[in-house]
Every structure is written in structure tokens, then in C-alpha cells.
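Exercise: predict the fold of this chain.
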Amino acid sequence: MSTSQKEHLYEGTGALNGYIHEQTDADWITSLRKDAFSRFSGEQWPTTELEEWRRTDISSYDFDSYAIKPTEASSDSVELPDDASAIIRFVNGVCTGSALSEKARDAGLVVVSLREAAAGRHGDELAAVVRTVAEPIMRENLANADNKLQLWNFATITHGVFVYLPKNTRLDDPIYIETHVDDDEAVLAPYHVVAADSLVDAMIVQTITGAEEGEVLVNEGIGVSIGEASHVRFMAVQNLNLDSTYFCFGNGSIQKDGDLQHYLCNFGCMLSKSRFDCTLDGPGSLVRLNGLYFPFEDQQMDMRTVQHHRAPRAESRTYYKGAVRDEAHAIYQGLIEVAPNATKTDAYLTNKNLVMNDGARSDSIPTLQINTDDVRCSHGSSTGKLDPMQLHYLHSRGYTPIEAEETLLMGFFEDIIDKAPERLQNELRALVSRRVYEAHDNDD
């Protein structure tokens, strides 16, 4: 990557209006940016006076210290993995390439840079498709944005992917979205749109990684639309370095008989705060929200899920599970909200935590808002510690302390790992194992 003569495209929120006017975007994206900026200017950063932010204090953050730095796209080609339907890669906010399998191309799958395609760089026909599909999703999510960080994302959009799955698209292999950051004191604001027409079956795997050093702030937005009788699995793995910060605000809309499975795997950043709202808009729709997290040192991970039931006979399942070590702090907030017309709703949410030592902390806040009768809704949470008798037993059988801890943690996480797509389960086990050994290395 190489920098242009202008050192920064944007430095500090005071320069945001100028940044917006300098971008060469499609008119509708520029309009969306301006609308977001108008609201952004009148908002305050979230404070601990708000219930959703009560346990995450960002008052010490200097958001003006981060810059968007211009980079040029790499000429490196992107090779399609053997097990992939498509891949697209971003480095420091720039799309460095993409590739589709022959089957995916024949099915009409679209996986492109959102901003590039919207601006017509892949042809007017695709630009029209992007606008028709993506603009309503983004407009609705902007209208529902309820904090300054979300508005900042919309106003600042640095990059993002547009994934469109036409009717009857059925893919055996995943679509990979890879984001890598190796900058310092930089802000990235991706916005990703995933839209599935009816009768679709597909899996998307998003990874966010960074260099071992370098302080970055990623402020991400995601919009997902699931058509009738479609089944989409969306797995996100966040593993940025411990100097970094990650905010993510995702929204999913599911139509009649549609099925969305969202899986968050949270390992990186000193502070991460994510929220995924899913709205069950059609009868017979199904949502499954799963999460696995393992903070250590003094990481803080704050995760929120919302299950909005807007239609009758819909079903939602949320299961988040984490271990907390050292002086780390994990927060899970879950809400099931049932509208007056959403009869026959079947919903639950569960959060389980394992606190590894006295300095670690876990907060679990599951809640219900039910506005009709004839529903089945439940929630629960539990917090525990490693069983000393089990540790003693493993030690007596020749296990080292680290091997014993790893074995018990693998057992603890196995049921949530089992909910991930099968081909990704070993990768999750490897992430858990790596975290155990990282933590013990720090103890030595």
C-alpha cells in the first residue's frame, strides 16, 4: 500500500463535512452521508446514563485523534480458496481484489465493493442493482440509528461489500469477506450489505484481523435482508490487536419462512461493543443468534442482541457463551421484544459465562418485552467457575495446569462451537486453544 501526497483524507470529526464533499460516490450514497452528518452534528457521544451504555464508558475516547489515511489499491491478485464460492478482501479500507467460482458466477452471485459498484465502476447495470437493493436497506437502518457512533459510521463509510444472492441461489461453499488493518491511529468505517432473494441457501464468513501493533478504531455497520424461504448463515470473527477498538451495529430483516443464523466470534480489541438487531418480519421466520467470546488481560467486550418479533408464528433462538480471564470484563445484554400482532411467538435467549479468576468480571442482562398473549418466551443466564475437583482429577492423571484448563474450557465451549458451521468448528477450537496459551504465557 502506498500513501498519496495528501497525508489524511479526514482527521477528526470536525473535518467530516469536508470529507463527505470530497468523496466521489454515487449520488444516493452522498445523500445518505449528508443526512447522517446532519443528525450526527446534533448528537452527543453515548454516555453511561444510557442503560445500553451503562457498563461501557467511552468518555475518555478522543475520537478526533483518529484519521482516514489515503491508500492505493494493491495490484496483488486474490486467489479463490478451494472451499470458497467467492472471496473479497479489503486492506486498510481499500478493496484489493475479489474472485468468484464458476458455479457462483453462473448463479448470478454478486460480491463487489459497495462504493465502487454504486459509483458505476463495474457498469451502469450493476450500479442500478446496487441502488435498488442496497439503498432501502441502508436508509431504513439509518432511520433506526439511535446513537452518534452509528451516525458516524453512515457519514464516514470508508468501504464495504455488497453481496447479492439472486432467487434460487444455492451455494455449497462459503463467501469470504476478509478485512485486514495494519495502520496506526486510523479509523475505518465499513458498511456491508448482504441481500438474499427468495429460496436462497448460502453461508458468509467475515474475518476482521490486524497487525500485531497499531492503534485502530473500526466502526462497522451491517445490513442483512433475508427473502422468503431463504437460509443464510453469517459468521463474523473479530480478532484485532489489543491496541484497537471495535464498534459494530448490525441489522437483519427476515421475511416469511426465512432463516438467518448469525454467529459472532469475539476475541480481539481492548474494547469491543457490538449490537445485532434482527427483525422477524414474516410469519414462519426463524433467527438464531450465537456468540462465543473469550476476553483476557484487561479487555472489555460488550455485546447486545435484540430479537424483534413483528409477525405471528416466528421463532428466535439466542445463545451466547463466554469465558473471562485475568482482569477482563464481559457484558451481554439480550432483549426479546414481541409486538402486539406477533402471536404464537416462540423465543428464548440464554447466556452462560465462566469466570476464570477473582479479578475477572461478567455481567449478564437478559430481558423481555412482551406485548401480546399466546406466546412462549423465556430467558436465562448463568455464571460459574472451573470445577477444582475436575482440575485436580486431570492433574492427578498427568495433565499440566495449562492442559487441564484447556481441556475443561474445550468442554465448556463445545456446545456453542457445535452451533457453528461444521467446516469452521476446528478453527474456533484453535482460537480458544490459542487464547488459553496466550493467557498462560502472560502469567509466566
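Check your answer against the key: Confidence is low (pLDDT under 50) at residues 1-6.
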